[in-house]
TrEMBL record, chain A:
One of its GO terms (molecular function) is transmembrane transporter activity. It is a single-pass membrane protein; Single-pass type II membrane protein. It comes from the Bacteria. GO terms for biological process: protein transport. PANTHER family: BIOPOLYMER TRANSPORT PROTEIN EXBD-RELATED, EXBD MEMBRANE COMPONENT OF PMF-DRIVEN MACROMOLECULE IMPORT SYSTEM. Belongs to the ExbD/TolR family. One of its GO terms (cellular component) is plasma membrane. This is Biopolymer transporter ExbD. It holds the Pfam family ExbD. Its main location: membrane.
TrEMBL record, chain B:
Signal peptide: none annotated. It comes from the Bacteria. It holds the Pfam family ExbD. GO terms for molecular function: transmembrane transporter activity. This is Biopolymer transporter ExbD. One of its GO terms (cellular component) is plasma membrane. It is found in: Cell membrane. GO terms for biological process: protein transport. Residues 1-26 are annotated as: Disordered. InterPro entries: ExbD (IPR003400). Keywords: Cell membrane, Membrane, Protein transport, Transmembrane, Transmembrane helix, Transport. Residues 12-25 have a biased composition (Basic residues). Belongs to the ExbD/TolR family.
Length: 221, 196
């Protein structure tokens, strides 16, 4: 009986197809996503049915963590630069160029204005350790939050003639209401009535008025 | 290399006598490239975000206008919602400016944020009731919700109740400072229920 010769198969698998898939996915992720913005504190936002998107630019964001600490951030380096220069002149903070630059390129700040010089001299880890990160005071006596709003708005108005700045509040689920009320009152005092609250998206509960309204706007099949 | 040359017919049978250069495989091992690809994918998946955060508009009335607006609201069309601590919600119909109204033991009620049997059902009920009423011009009345958040309530409750307004399409609502009377009622209800 003649021996049946089994042809020897290579053990190697052609990886080209897999490589293609990998890079396809990679391209997708690079194009479809954006980098997480650095947050001073972790904040878990409540969810709502609102589908309105947070604008990319011209945003003044107040982050509030669950202990009620308020952090300020604004987009646009030239605007931030102007803001810190104004604060420096107004409050005689004596910031040097490096510290101002730190503010311009940095993320959020959350400290008293008087501690700003020490605060800006540190990096993120040192800030956490130093205990200066107590948040911007929201009380109505000093009204530093109001100062930040005012200077931020001025810096914004200087950079573009049209003031389309949106004020956003991003607060944690567990933030006590009095803190939010303080912030809202500060805005009210500045005659800023339109605010944005950052939330997560949540499905509209079926059977409610909003769900019915959504049905109506959908094109009929 | 993991690649094995199977394409050539093998160099066993020497058919030609001439010098023969060894044939290399033209295939390239893609494994490291795949590794790299997936490594980068993992990196991008972890450091980036896909969904942009959503925002909720909050338009606050002016302080002076607020008082007038509040006075304009009719007792019969108003629903006052109070946010208590520990995710509790209290509500009563009307504005509670009338001291006699509070004498009714069923006046001040407690509920939750639950989807069924919670505050949402109460809002819908009140909305339907008010829609039956007619104003001086004979048009259906619109419910006005007054939201009062107590100091114990959290931001989650606040957004939650504003969200209920959006869910039930309540166009007229206002956030108002909590009064001492409201605080007393919350305390009384909590004591009565024995959950403090």
């Amino acid at each position: 009986m003649p021996k049946v010769k089994m042809p020897r198969k290579s053990t190697a698998i052609d990886m080209t197809a897999m490589c293609d898939v990998a890079f396809l996915l990679l391209t997708f992720f690079m194009l479809a996503t954006k980098f997480k913005p650095d947050e001073p504190v972790t904040v878990i936002t409540p969810s709502s049915i609102n589908t309105q998107l947070l604008p990319d630019s011209d945003v003044m964001l107040f982050t509030v963590d669950k202990d009620g600490r308020v952090f300020f951030s604004m987009d646009g380096q030239p605007k931030r630069r102007k803001l810190i220069e104004d604060l420096n002149t107004q409050y005689h903070l004596g910031l040097d160029d490096k510290e101002m630059n730190n503010f311009a390129v940095g993320g959020s700040v959350g400290t008293d204005i008087k501690n700003l010089k020490a605060y800006l001299g540190m990096n993120a880890d040192q800030r956490k350790a130093s205990g200066l990160e107590k948040g911007i005071p929201t009380d109505s006596v000093n009204g530093e939050l109001g100062q930040w709003i005012e200077y931020g708005t001025t810096a914004q108005a200087g950079s573009s003639g049209l003031n389309k700045l949106s004020y956003c509040i991003k607060a944690d689920n567990q933030t006590p209401y009095p803190v939010i009320k303080d912030i809202l009152d500060t805005f009210k005092k500045k005659h800023i009535q339109k605010l944005n609250l950052v939330t997560n998206l949540e499905a509209i509960p079926p059977g409610t008025a909003a769900a019915l309204a959504q049905e109506e706007t959908k094109p009929a099949k | 290399m993991a690649e094995m040359d199977t394409s050539s017919s093998g160099g066993k049978g020497k058919k030609h006598g001439g010098t023969k250069s060894k044939k290399h495989s033209t295939r390239v091992d893609m494994t490291p490239m795949v590794d790299l690809g997936f490594l980068l994918i993992t990196f991008f998946m972890l450091t980036t975000t896909m969904s942009k955060p959503k925002t909720m508009d909050l338009i606050m009335p002016k302080d002076t206008k607020n008082e007038e607006e509040q006075n304009k609201v009719k007792e019969s069309t108003a629903l006052t919602i109070l946010l208590g601590g520990k995710d509790r919600v209290y509500y009563y119909e009307g504005l509670a400016q009338d001291p006699n109204a509070a004498a009714n033991p069923d006046f001040f009620k407690a509920t939750t944020f639950a989807a069924k049997g919670g505050i949402r059902d109460e809002i819908i009920k009140k909305k339907e009731e008010v829609a039956k009423l007619r104003n001086a011009k004979g048009e259906p009345e619109d419910v006005v919700v007054i939201i009062k958040a107590s100091d114990e309530s959290t931001y989650k409750n606040f957004v939650g109740i504003l969200d209920e307004m959006a869910i039930n399409r309540i166009s007229r609502y206002a956030t108002v400072d909590i009064t001492d009377q409201d605080k007393t009622w919350i305390k009384q209800t909590e004591n009565a229920n024995g959950n403090k």
